[in-house]
Amino acid sequence: MAVLLVASMPALYILQTTLPDGGFSLAFRSSSLVDGGWWPGVLTSMFVHTGWGHVIMNALAALAFAPAVARLFPGTKGGAVFLLLYIMCGAVATVGYGLLYLDSSVPVLGASGAVFGMMGAALRLLGRRGRGPVPLTNRRFLTNSAILMLVNAAVGLIGFVPGMGGLQIAWEAHAIGYVVGALLIGPWFAWFAPKPDQFDSRADVSDPPV
């Protein structure tokens, strides 16, 4: 499912370029939370990008982090659970950013908030091999998170990333998405990850002959 998610980014961008306005009507604007504008942009904005550079960066980041999360949720139902987590991270990141800048009509678009959610979830799974996330107080997780958020803030404040077309970088949305992913992976694992059978009666090569 993670690979399909990554592949969907360039595929959707190709479709986006065929739209009359280049897909910018699907972007999110913070002011829509107040004036009742294109509020579906909370969801649609994460499926459109500013350019190929933007698409490639998000696709590579998703390819690096999303598989660790997707592996916890196998099968068709697991794929739906994984996508729900991804979308929730992106949507909350977008709304959170909007609440910080309610008077802004600058378009916000891209999957970065959702991708950062995958980063937050994946870093809690680092080295766990399917055993569930580490505690939020884990020293390695906190150290990695601090480094990543410092880099995120620095890049956002500098304001230059190839492929963004000169648009403002919503680094705050990245941070919110990261926190949401890190928080949700715990209950997501508890609620939806398959549990090993405590009593497995299936025969295997170790069974004595009958």
What do you see in this structure?
The N and C termini lie far apart (42 Å). The chain has one domain (2-192): Up-down Bundle (Rhomboid-like fold), CATH 1.20.1540. Helix 1 (2-16) packs antiparallel against helix 4, helix 4 (52-70) packs parallel to helix 6 (112-124) and helix 7 runs antiparallel to helix 8. It has 8 helices and no strands. It has 210 residues and is an all-alpha fold. Helix content is 59%, strand content 0%. The protein is globular and about 50 Å long.
Keywords:
210 residues; mainly alpha; Rhomboid-like fold; 59% helix; globular
Distance between the termini: 42 Å
Number of domains: 1
Q: pLDDT average, as an integer?
A: 86
Give the overall silhouette. globular
What name is given to the CATH topology? Rhomboid-like fold
- Count every beta strand, where a strand is a DSSP E run of 2 or more residues: 0
* Biggest beta sheet attributes: none
Question: Could you tell me the radius of gyration in angstroms?
Answer: 19 Å
Low-confidence residue ranges: 198-210
What fraction of the residues are assigned to beta strands by DSSP? under 5%
- CATH H level, superfamily name: Rhomboid-like
**Which structural class do the helices and strands define?**
mainly alpha
The proportion of residues forming helix, as a percent range, comes to 55-70%
H/E topology pattern: HHHHHHHH
Number of discrete helical segments: 8
Q: Give the name of the CATH architecture.
A: Up-down Bundle
